[in-house]
Amino acid sequence: MSASANDQLVALPAPDTRGVLPLETTLSKRRSIRNYKDLALTLPEISQLLWAAQGITSKRGFRTAPSAGALYPLELYVAAGHVEGLEAGIFHYLPQKHALVSIEKDDQRAALARAALGQQPVRQAPAVFIFTAVPGRTAAKYGRRGTRYVLQEVGHAAQNLCLQAVALELGSVVIGAFSDEDVARILKLKDAEVPLCLVPVGR
Question: For the domain that residue 59 is a member of, what is the CATH number?
């Protein structure tokens, strides 16, 4: 889903590009965490997680995760339910602006949990990140092989997000079991865009 000129953007705090936790420490601490405290995330934390997954890191538009041919088929959404400084709803991340655009005003975590076969982390986490893709962007250059590249890319991006969660002392888990049709409906995706994975994040 693309933003129109009339959509109101939510500006995000600038990401921290220095950090204090060594990469080796984040790797050793990364685990799938499925239970979260009833505590909010903050807007700076949401900003940092989005940037880690799909943030722009060069003047040429390159991102934190590699992309075959720099075609960037991935799209990233966050379903916010308990985030300080951000109303409940679903937001689409715009890497070029490092901003969010609202696509749904109501808390959709319960609906996403039902779409994810009732998995509790999706319902419980204060925020759920949703990776989707427009495979045609990659297939236009690489044909059928492009499908494999898209799946590789979402793995890179999701791992970036999970490692950033560790660095922020947060827990996360990557979820792949869900109804594609239901998640696409909740996100109001067009036919060319498909959901790939959900990543609940919390304390």
Answer: 3.40.109.10
Distance between CA atoms of 90 and 110, rounded to whole angstroms? 12
CA distance 59 to 72: 15
What are 138-163's pLDDT values in tens digits? 999 999 999 999 999 999 999 999 99
- Checking phi first, is residue 77 left (phi over 0); if not, alpha (psi -120 to 50) or beta? beta
Distance CA 132, CA 189 (A): 9
Q: How many domains does the chain have?
A: 1
Q: Nearest 5°: CA angle at 135, between 125 and 69?
A: 105
Whole-model pTM: value is: 0.95
Among candidate residues 105, 121, 90, the one with its CA nearest the CA of residue 183? 90
